[in-house]
Design a protein that fits this description.
The chain is 41% helix and 23% strand. The chain has helices at 7-18, 20-34, 63-67, 130-139, 147-152, 159-192, 198-228, 256-259, 269-277, 334-353, and strands spanning 38-42, 47-49, 85-87, 90-94, 100-107, 113-124, 155-157, 232-239, 244-251, 263-265, 281-284, 287-288, 305-313, 316-325. The chain has two domains: 7-157, Beta-Lactamase (2-Layer Sandwich); 177-353, GAF domain (Beta-Lactamase). It is of the alpha+beta class. The two termini are 42 Å apart. The protein is built from ten helices and 14 strands.
Length: 355
């Protein structure tokens, strides 16, 4: 029986392989903030978008992709998925150094993988002592003068943060692909129908991109709430015209109808103060460290702890993420949660900037 072709899969691969440099630029943005290597393969494991050059941005452990994971990234003919095993929602490989490499399927409407993002290596949890890495490296005949430098370039992340980032990376890439599909469809219509003016086509494209972004914002907030173990949260985005922060999505907030009308300028309210300072705020009940302006704004003793994080791209605040919990502070590992949320916030800001 002949194999049925999947038009969506073929079109996806065609869009990416038609301009791999454009996709490499997109992935570079995520690599820079996450300090993790990212490249793309098709559903058969063959290279679509190769690994970026290490020069100028650090190694991020890319030398271990060949030496420790056995990936040959110089040819598109190899099946780069061959060594991965199922690990729940994702595929995963673990090296002898306990480095983790993930393959995340970006799926189409029929829930079939269109292509895969390969992400890593990454250290989940605490790294080993240097002596243990060196001893194993010498045993495997991998140790050299740059060995420890390469080890230290591998990013460290909690498992919870990694899962959230993997999920969002797949969603962002899928949304960008959908926008590229829409752009190509409009170009085809324009080539057949001269009555479709460029300004109308651009308006349609902008509307479609806004819809994709709104869906992504919901996913982002849900991932952040889950990561922090929060009970509620919100995400404000900067309106370029008014230079105000507008509440776009929220979960678990009271008087939601009125809250969704909220608009704040830089320096106004808790979110505005975080944006002004370009630094996260960590609040315990009605007590806050740092800016005195905060004290008069803390009127919710039922909220035991809050994290308010500005989303920054190229030194510009593009949004503010706020999370709060009604749990007792003793139940919250605020240090690790804060680290994970700040790491996630850098990715979120870059993701929003990609639209």
């Amino acid at each position: 029986m002949p194999v049925m072709e999947n038009p969506t899969l073929n079109l996806s691969v065609g869009v990416i392989s038609g301009d791999p440099q454009k996709w490499r630029v997109l992935l570079n943005q995520f690599e820079e903030v996450l300090k993790i290597n990212i490249f793309m393969v098709d559903a058969k494991g063959q290279l679509l978008v190769s690994l970026s050059e290490a020069s100028g941005r650090g190694d991020f452990g890319s030398s271990f992709l060949k030496s420790s994971f056995g990936l040959n990234l110089t040819t598109g003919a190899d099946n780069h998925l061959a060594g991965f095993k199922n690990n729940g929602q994702y595929l995963q490989m673990i090296s002898p150094f306990d480095f983790h490499l993930f393959a995340v399927a970006v799926k189409g409407d029929e829930d079939q993988p269109l292509f895969y993002l390969i992400i890593g290596p990454v250290i989940l949890g605490k790294p080993w002592p240097d002596e243990k890495y060196v001893a194993l490296g010498e045993h495997l005949m991998l140790a050299n003068e740059n060995f420890l430098r390469d080890i230290h370039s591998v990013s460290q992340m909690s498992e919870l943060a990694m899962n959230s980032i993997l999920e969002l990376l797949a969603e962002v890439t899928k949304d960008v692909l959908a926008i590229e599909f829409e752009k190509q469809k409009l170009q085809q219509i324009q080539s057949r129908d001269e009555t479709l003016r460029p300004d109308i086509a651009n308006a349609v494209q902008d509307l479609f991109a806004n819809i994709q972004q709104d869906e992504l914002l919901v996913q982002i907030l849900d991932s952040a709430i889950k990561m922090a173990g929060a009970k509620s949260g919100s995400l404000m985005i900067l309106d370029e015209e008014s230079q105000e922060f507008v509440l776009r999505v929220s979960r678990g907030l009271e008087n939601k109808k009125n809250i969704m009308m909220t608009r704040l300028k830089v320096g106004e309210g808790i979110a505005g103060i975080a944006a002004l300072n370009k630094a996260p705020l960590f609040i315990s009940g009605t007590e806050a460290q740092g800016d005195r302006k905060l004290q008069g704004l803390l009127k919710r003793p039922d909220i035991k702890s809050s994290i308010v994080v500005p989303l920054i791209v190229k030194d510009k605040v593009v949004g503010v993420l706020s999370l709060c919990t009604k749990n007792q502070q003793d139940d919250v590992d605020i240090e690790n949660i804060s680290r994970d949320i700040c790491q996630l916030s850098r990715f979120i800001a870059t993701a929003l900037h990609s639209f």
